Amino acid sequence: MYKTASTGVQAERLWSRHVQMSQFGRICDGGVNRQALTREEVDARGQLLGWARERGFRVAVDAIGNLFITRAGREPNLSSIMTGSHLDTQPAAGNFDGAYGVLAGFEVLEALSDLGITTRRSVQTTVWTNEEGVRFAPGLMGSGVFTGSLALTQMLQSRAPDGVSVAEALTGLERILRPGDERLQHVPAPHTYIEAHIEQGPVLEERGVAVGVVTGIQGIRLYEVEVTGEEGHAGTVPVGARKDALRAAVRLSNSLYAEFADPGEETRFTIGRFTVAPGGRSTIPGRVEFSIDLRHPELSVLEIAERKTIDTIDECNGRPCAASVTRVLARKPTYFAPHVIELISAESRRLELPHLHLPSGAGHDAMMLSDACPTGMIFVPCKEGISHSVRESARKEDLAAGARVLANVLQKLAMQ
Amino acid sequence: MYKTASTGVQAERLWSRHVQMSQFGRICDGGVNRQALTREEVDARGQLLGWARERGFRVAVDAIGNLFITRAGREPNLSSIMTGSHLDTQPAAGNFDGAYGVLAGFEVLEALSDLGITTRRSVQTTVWTNEEGVRFAPGLMGSGVFTGSLALTQMLQSRAPDGVSVAEALTGLERILRPGDERLQHVPAPHTYIEAHIEQGPVLEERGVAVGVVTGIQGIRLYEVEVTGEEGHAGTVPVGARKDALRAAVRLSNSLYAEFADPGEETRFTIGRFTVAPGGRSTIPGRVEFSIDLRHPELSVLEIAERKTIDTIDECNGRPCAASVTRVLARKPTYFAPHVIELISAESRRLELPHLHLPSGAGHDAMMLSDACPTGMIFVPCKEGISHSVRESARKEDLAAGARVLANVLQKLAMQ
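Predict the joint structure of the above. Result:
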């Protein structure tokens, strides 16, 4: 008799794992600050490995600290079916962005074991290192190294603002690893990658739909802008003689916001980081650095937006402060594999879960994985579309529904 | 025979003391970061006390950490003649703002001793605690407590961003104090206070004048502005649904800058500190805090400027982010004592030094002291009027000229 993996998914267990995970880096009720490779994030990974060891799953780690929890299949030499996400968060975040994909994947492994299902291919749940890119730049670091679009040696040298390098921070993982764990130099590409995630947008909740079948991910470009003026005393330097870097940066940002102010426009323009030096109350700022995050589902529109951005910064340059911009990341729009999209739709239908197709507004490790293998994503609703905020929230039954679809999709793929 | 104190001022000695002092908190060639009651600032004070002990001057400290170096007069019960300034600096500052007033004062004490001059009144050089107000708010803390306009118990509880309180930081002074030093609970007001300082403006240098006779200090008001929106994911939240605190703060600051953009206007408007939270590159900012420093020599103009500022912030409130403003400091314009201004002019004339009357654009401890006793200031030129910057610079001969005027003024007063 064919057992369906989704029947082994336990909503309560999946929820309680989220609650337990939320203790690592907890900053307030529902709020988490668990940046990549900090003590808190390593502890969260250790908790997951503890659960994996209890179930007898295999543990492996690669050179950038990605963790692989494997439930071996009948033919372990075949490429594996992989799921997963990340455990790191933004500085003031919730408990579901990333954690859900990891814990839903782990729930599927447990469901398969509980039901005594033997798959042909191995099934793996992965924790990708530094998806968020807050403590270390760039984000999607673990999945980027894994798929070869980021260079390992360069990433190991990336440094946090306090000077700690990724290589140094990775030594923290030794604390949670055991002698029997595998240290992988080269990890073969999986057969297929499926990532479950909260939507981080309002569509599913607004339409009362349980499952989002993700068609792709909008393109993203990140920039760093530098504005340099001249420090001076706030009480003495006349207006006309000032080279106030903050004043110039404010005028520049104001022009940039105006460029992207049309609410009918799908372009997402965000300045998230904005630092002013030296920062004394009575000192005219000499230097401002800020980041730009620019996204759109279509490459051509993204390129026009980039042109506008660069032109606006160029126009500001030298009037009277120096202004320059550097692109630090460019990622084309991603289109997921049609047969994977179809499989997720079919399994949602079989479970009689309302579902719809939609693109992802946010970047995900699946974006990197799609370079290496057929890839897809499953979205579940989150409250008011809020994420990257302590107000992020999701419902137990929605998390379980997404995990059931994931379970059946992974099972189907692992039998191929 | 009457000896003139100025003849004992040694330009080389005064200059070399500046060079030695610049080693404490040195951040680059000519640059200093020596914030109040840090290890570096305490070490700088220790160096000064070392020199004082070599000369046999008396050392005293009060409850807010102001240091008093006294060369006793013939009638030590009379109120003393006081000079001095501060040794703390802005985060990226030069070697003369503050340090000059302390070292010129100390040079006068040495000159008096070298010449064997006995004064009627005692002459004191003071190091005021936390003039700059960078690490702890507010600035002018030591002189404000001394003159009673700031409350000691409240100041002791002021905390640095890292959580250290003034009370805790003050324990660092024990390291440089000795059992014989006086611990003062109440320090009597001086007979007269004279502070020497670099101009921090371009006037003296541009006109080739050695000595600025300071007529007063412009009024200053400090504000803290808070803009609160809602954090969200940079890739998913549509433009129309955003409550982007940075976007609102940028629009608001831009309006404020526009209010004070007229180069013919004497108002000084500066935003020096500007912090954006949470600060992730892919998170819509939920909160911005910034400071406003507003100055003008006339009270009525300052009050109009305050009205404009508050109105502009009120207009921004709720569209769509909350915006509020708190005044954290208000200080009326200061007018120095006419007979002190006249004395400084007369002594400059006697030394045949070109001099002119001018107001101070920057606040100084003398502003606080003018509440307690007749007060005056002596300015010397600094390069291009630059201060609060590592590019701050002054010339050996200008420093010596100012110290000579200071010496004769203090001597005259101490004989009264």
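The first strand of chain B starts at residue 26 and ends at 28.
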